[in-house]
Amino acid sequence: MCHFQDKDSRYTPRMHLVLFDIDGTLIKGGGMGGRALRQAFEEVFSVSAVENSDLDKVHFGGRTDPAIITDMATALNLQIEDPLHPTFVEAFLRHLRSNVDTTPELKTCPYIPELLQSLHHDPRVCLGLITGNMEPGARIKLDPFELNPFFPIGGFGEDGFERHLLVGAAIERGRNHYDIGFDPEEVVVIGDTQNDIKAGRAHGCLTVGVATGWVEEENLQQANGSAVFKDLSPENGFASWLNEQLS
To answer: Where is the signal peptide (predicted)?
Structure first.
């Protein structure tokens, strides 16, 4: 993955940083993140949260953990200064680990393991994450499928409330880790919501919407990204599209 050919080669590939969202893009979590947050609110703040219907109105898709936690606190009539307070984060991560073991719906999205193996061995590709999850939570979600080794860097929920801040953080970490000065047009942002596409576009990146989450293809297309696919399997055209961008 992500290495140049010998200097005597007549062709040096153009390197691209390919950033994947997690929930709805790499995996389907079966709602375990939301359950863990509710459980953490009950434990830390002694409020009724697990079965609280007011929390059903909080939108999760394409958002960051700090923004989601803040909205959940508001719905519970709580005032919190730091949505990532260590006590709350510790409780959330503990419950998230527990939910991994008790969520039978947890699975990878179509063709993801095969795709990552292929990209990992493509010398033109450097991989990373772009997710609203806090990094420890992201790693917990990916660990059951042994996907973490594919992603040495990323942009995470700790990097800001707004998703475009995560893209900037991921690009900077990618440049530092891989020692490659990726231009914006050499970065591909892949996600299952309009927010993923908008965040990538804000930095001038190539953007891919994938309808394996909770947003329909036609709604993803309205975000005016570079491409939209039903899923990331070869038969739906993603591999061909990406190969064109890498050429």
So the answer is: none
